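May I ask you to review the protein record following this short note?
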Amino acid sequence: MGIAFDYAPERPDHINEILNSLDRYNPETTTILQDYVTQQCEDRSYDCYANLALLKLYQFNPHLLRDETTTNILTKSLTVFPSPDFSLCLHLLPSYILSPPTSASAPQNNPSSNPAPGDAPLTEAVQKLAHLNTLLSSAKYRQFWNTLNSDDLYADLIADVGGFEDLMRLRIAITVGQSCREVERGVLEGWLGLEGEKFEHFVVEVCGWGVDSTRGVVVVPVNKENEAKGTVVREEVKFEQFARVIRRAYEQPA
């Protein structure tokens, strides 16, 4: 059986009581859930169910919405890609926040383009995070790191989330390990945003992979996801299933 959507092993008892009672719709619990988001950012835990409950409270009580907490929730949801958590959180935000960039300089035919500085602060922040999510979903990992390092606003958005870059590298490595057996070193360095000794330490010590210096590749051990398996398709069709077809073949035309 899979893990339940609302399960979070690090969730405190008082948060669990709120989520499993009518208090999850009580505006007075907003500050408690906001503090819980701050705790998640500090100790690297993650509770999507609680974060969605807070965003739902913001829907019902727009005057309670806090920009910093909202962006922290979205940033935390990026650290568990390729799960759909970011999209779930995004669609609980007000429609005006999800509107495309308003600047005339923004390309109209590219909805994933970076927002313009003239947009409202929260809208601009959400659009930038959505752009990062698009790059991750498209497996454009090198472009993800280049974009992340291209603007000071990105640095501000991830500042509150402890270990954001480490968590992202780990998620990218997991995705790579599920689909590859060997990767060129230069390619993987771009995907992980690391070079030199830091790259080798992460690949060998954290991921448990091997570095073949002679061929310039990183070797990923075989696992159940990246192992090549032949597929044998067998169709069991009983003779009785063809009885009508065969009978019609011998029938005389009217």
User: Anything to note?
Assistant: Residues 121-137 form the longest helix (17 residues). The chain is about 50% helix and 5% strand. The beta strands are 182-184, 210-212, 217-219. The CA atoms of residues 25 and 57 lie 6 Å apart.
